[in-house]
Design a protein that fits this description.
By secondary structure, this protein is an all-alpha fold. The protein has 34 helices and no strands. Helix 25 crosses helix 27. The model has no long low-confidence stretch (mean pLDDT 95).
């Protein structure tokens, strides 16, 4: 399809007031083999009539688009479990590849996952077991499955498994299943840890989290075996922790500085270096405790940059810790608060936007519910930077005259923001429908009359 018409249809597909008859017309379109616009397939709250059109669409690309939708309910997507195309079933099995960081993907029902796991096409079951969206209850049900790959995945639900199923996985005839189980069991079993240390594939992870015999820990220190991993180990004897705190390797000293049992004086006495872009994702005890008030308080009040950055990822920070982190002069902390916390302060969101305009973090800040609106027109309508002029469109007090003025801005992003605003005068909105860089924004404008939406579909060759 010609790019202009594809952009036009994409805009109409995003329009929040798109009437159902036009939606159905758009969904039935094949798009020259590309299928309907993705935004039409992945709208939230699709009516049953629209879901029926998608499920029966002859182009598998349409069904794949719906199978990976974050807007559809799991029960709706599950109706593709018996689709004739294995590509569609695999897409359903894996689920959405990307989702908004502020949203949660609900898993498919367990019985549907079970059917997909037993699919005769191997790519479907592989996609399912690779999915990050599986319910713990389903993972736990795999412990006795005939497929070794499924039993290996069951180890991800280790804490939910009864003891007899844990024991069975540890004695499984398949080495990969045993290794997956042992990497969980080793946390409380030094013998299992010692066995894993003999396997190069599992040694580093076993050193990171396994219960250690002192002799094994001393040998690894002497041989300098995976010292950065060893430095994270919760069972590492105190004297060896102290020894590694002065190790010549920067990565080892940094790992020691992040140990949860250290008090602030000892932690900050370690000579560690933190990269400007390191977000603290490797601080497991904080990452695992993002809903734990005590963990959050210890991390957020620390002087260690990586602990503060790790804590800033939590949407559960109480007000006092949120205020504390909002005052930290650390761009990574600000970015994470803007992405993850529902009450991120306006000033933090504005600083992220000012520093990173045009990036994902800036977009997350700008789309945050608390991003400021009032007063932006007066402050930024004449700003020399187009990224700031675009903010004027967000102001409820912006006049139709100003919106129209901004729709002619030299910067395309500003023009697009203005053209998508319902205050844009209708004559200018109709003009924008014929401008390639603006047609998508114009199509998505909720003030676009229904007959104009229909005309866009007709011009793009969408059958009535």
């Amino acid at each position: 399809m010609v790019a202009f018409y594809a952009s036009a249809l994409d805009g109409v597909a995003r329009n929040p007031v798109l009437p159902t008859p036009l939606l159905l017309r758009l969904l039935a379109f094949d798009g020259g083999g590309d299928g309907p616009p993705r935004h039409a397939l992945q709208r939230t709250d699709l009516p049953e009539s629209a879901v029926a059109v998608i499920l029966a669409h002859p182009n598998p690309k349409a069904r794949i688009g719906f199978a990976t939708s974050t807007g559809a309910e799991p029960a709706q997507r599950a109706r593709l479990a018996d689709d004739l195309s294995p590509k569609v079933r695999a897409a359903l099995a894996y689920g959405p590849e990307w989702h908004h960081p502020r949203t949660t993907i609900a898993p498919l029902p367990d019985d549907v996952c079970a059917r997909l796991l037993d699919d005769p096409v191997a790519s479907v079951s592989t996609a399912l077991l690779d999915s990050p969206h599986l319910a713990p209850s389903f993972l736990a049900s795999l412990a006795t499955h005939r497929d070794p790959s499924a039993r290996r995945s069951a180890a991800r639900a280790w804490e939910k498994l009864p003891q007899d199923e844990r024991s069975a996985l540890l004695a499984d005839p398949e080495s990969e299943v045993r290794r997956a189980a042992e990497l969980w069991a080793c946390r409380r079993n030094a013998r299992v840890t010692a066995e894993l240390l003999r396997d190069p594939k599992s040694a580093a992870e076993a050193l990171r989290r396994g219960l250690l015999h002192r002799a094994d820990a001393e040998r690894c220190v002497a041989e300098r075996t995976h010292l950065a991993s060893l430095a994270e180990n919760p069972s590492l004897p105190t004297d060896l922790v102290e020894q590694l705190a002065g190790d010549p390797d920067d990565a080892v000293r940094l790992a020691v500085s992040l140990r949860p049992e250290l008090d602030e004086a000892r932690r900050m006495a370690i000579d560690f270096n933190v990269g400007g872009l390191d977000r603290g994702d490797g601080v497991r005890w904080v990452r695992d405790g993002l809903a734990d008030p005590e963990v959050l308080r210890r991390a957020a009040t620390s002087a260690h940059p990586l602990l503060r950055r790790a804590a800033a990822q939590s949407p559960h920070l109480p007000p006092d810790l949120l205020r504390l982190l909002a005052r930290v002069e650390d761009p990574v902390v600000e970015n994470r608060l803007g992405i993850h916390h529902p009450d991120a302060p306006e000033e933090v969101l504005m600083r992220v936007y000012a520093r990173l305009g045009g990036t994902f973090s800036a977009w997350m800040a700008e789309t945050h519910p608390r991003f400021p609106r009032e007063g932006l027109a007066a402050r930024y309508a004449d700003h020399p930077d187009g990224n700031y002029r675009r903010l004027a469109v967000r102001d409820p007090a912006a006049t139709p005259t100003l919106i129209e003025q901004l729709s002619h801005d030299p910067v395309v992003w500003t023009r697009q923001a203005a053209v998508g605003d319902p205050r844009l005068p209708l004559h200018r909105l109709r003009e924008a429908l014929h401008e390639p860089e603006l047609v998508s924004s114009a199509g998505a404008n909720p003030a676009l009359p229904e007959d104009e939406m229909a005309a866009v579909l007709t011009r793009a060759g969408v059958p009535a």
